[in-house]
User: What shape does this take?
Amino acid sequence: MDHKRISYFYDEDVGCFYYSSGHPMKPHRIQMAHELIVNYGMHDKMQIFRPPKATRQDMTLFHSEEYVRFLETVTPDTTQEFVDQIRRFNVAEDTPIFDGLFDFCRISAGGSVEGATRLCQGFADIAINWAGGLHHAKKNEASGFCYINDIVLAIIELLRYFPRVLYVDIDIHHGDGVEEAFYTTNRVMTVSFHKYGNFFPGTGALNDIGVGQGKHYAVNVPLDDGMNDESFTSIFNPVMTEVMERYRPAAIVMQCGADSLSGDRLGRFNLSLYGHGDCVSFLKQYNVPMLVLGGGGYTIKNVARCWTYETSLLVGMQISNDLPENEHHDYYEGNKLHLITTNMANSNTKQSLENIRISISESLRMLEG
Ligand code: ZLS
Ligand code: CA
Ligand code: ZN
Assistant: This one.
């Protein structure tokens, strides 16, 4: 079956939120991606929704009541009155209090939770929310540009209907908030590919595999600088083949952080859109209900390119390398969709990747069933 029913979530206000001057996270990139998606004509092949905004009740299925109330109440003008809580809830330079912060959280989480609901109802095969994927947020704490963990909330929704949910994270950072939330359960398997060693958030070692009932249900793929398409495919495909065979998930959540692309302002990998997008195609071919989310990505023209290309893969539409008419065409050098990788050194060797694969395979072999 190549024709999938796609639900796509987009709120036109999302591009107007602004973290702080000089902050690398720019919600405007989601608007840029949407513009390309529409101008390529992909809207005809999907159901497009403005998501209902997530409520405080939705959020407290994972986050603490006090933390959510704090996010709802604090404003840039009242931060003085909240100094204790600001320390307690870890809001600082990475996660500033900006105008409309809580509305931004409600939009990001609303799209992911509603996407999960569409999959549960059987109304869609694939749901897309490029405003989601904020994988660092904790129950009681903001972290790494993330305040509300839309992914954890969406997985909790999926668990109402699906017995086993697989989470796959190709953002260059470790998906620590999602891993931590499900570290002790076998109903969710988390798999993160990330740069490891001297890099935020510092967690995600190869030997972190879960505890208790969750032992062997967390998978970490720690990587070094300069990952290219060939290296990434050589580890992603065998690891995910084994995960799919052994775990047999009923639903998949994929975080498609675009900071693993070549030329990212914060990243250190060297992937092209093909290498990144192949991961999406690889999981799509299993025909399991799938929620596809955004995440990081700090060279914003490349983020828009990446999520446009991945939307085309999901809807099954071939698109030209010549970008369509768009308001930001002077951003996209040459007006091409695809980007050119660099000659940066790849510090990952065949042997180091093979060792990682073997270690993961040994852990997965311990799964019951
Ligand atoms: O995965 O590395 C850190 C923490 C620090 C260094 C930076 N300072 C500001 C705080 C302390 C140790 N933080 C990372 C967070 C990366 C989050 C990735 C999110 C995701 O992609 C999912 C969405 C980090 N890397 C770079 C920065 N922070 C950073 C760079 C530049 C700036 C400007 C705004 C703020 C302060 C100056 C900032 C952060
Ligand atoms: Ca990751
Ligand atoms: Zn990231």
